[in-house]
Amino acid sequence: MRILFITSTRLGDAVLSTGLLDVLLARYPQARFTIACGPVAAALFDAMPRRERTIVVTKRRYDLHWLSLWRDCVGTRWDLCVDLRGSAVTLFLPARRRAIMRGGRRQGARITHLGGVLGLSPPPLPVMWTAPADRAQARAILPDGIRWLALAPTANWAGKIWPADRFVALARMMQAQRGPLRPVILYGPGEAERAMASAVLAALPDAVDAGGHFTLPQVAALLARCQGFIGNDSGLMHLSAAVGTPTLGLFGPSRISEYGPVGRCARGVAAPGPEGEAPIAGLEVAAVVDAAIGLLDDAGAVPDGGLSVVA
């Protein structure tokens, strides 16, 4: 059995879609999967069981990337095509069944819309797949015996970024109120991401620099070793929630009702004001500390999260 799964170009959306894949893996134990996604999200599926191939869809002028995807897939007889991009590609592929997510702005949580593509209510929680080497490396970088607190001070646009000095104040207040918590600073690849994180790294000399050069499964394994995560609305936030780490997402003008973190122990805190308009600078450190402490207090009653191991 062959399944084609077309998911997002953006990391956060791709993470949210992994719950559907988890359902399909269980429902069709003999199926082999081809994943089509954008370059940023491609490594997310490296350790996925029964993944036959990942097709990286790189955006081209005049939507020619869809033609390239069609050419890559038209020679296969698909048993199921799942298209979360709402494109017309799967309509022109030989397929026994199709499930296509329709476009347009919708109200409510993105995860609910994704679940609806397969008629799943409630929608499945995201998961993340890692390999033994990923987990061994994470254990070497973040060894046992230390309580690690992941901080993610970057995002893909300025309006989502909580000021760096507040992340620093947050780390110090969490240490003062909850005892030893050693920061782990996460950020994406590239100089721009490194520059966004540099002020936090400079002000917290005991922090572990865990950004920039790790693969997504390696980052997931690092996150799984942390007692908690606090960070901007970003792909890293969704990845943390997917592995089951207690996750607190920080929201300003992005919509917490649509893109709040989804997991067994995940929640968001938003700046005061109308959703979608409130500047993230209005989010005070004390409010984040209170939310983080409440999250960590609740975490002990929550079962293990969605980190999936691959032998």
TrEMBL record:
Keywords per UniProt: Glycosyltransferase, Transferase
Highest taxon above the source species: Bacteria
Entries under Gene3D superfamilies matching the protein: Glycogen Phosphorylase B (3.40.50.2000)
InterPro entries cross-referenced by the UniProt entry: Glyco_trans_9, LPS_LOS_Heptosyltrfase
GO MF: ADP-heptose-lipopolysaccharide heptosyltransferase activity
Protein name: Glycosyltransferase family 9 protein
Gene Ontology, cellular component aspect: cytosol
A GO biological process held by the record: lipopolysaccharide core region biosynthetic process
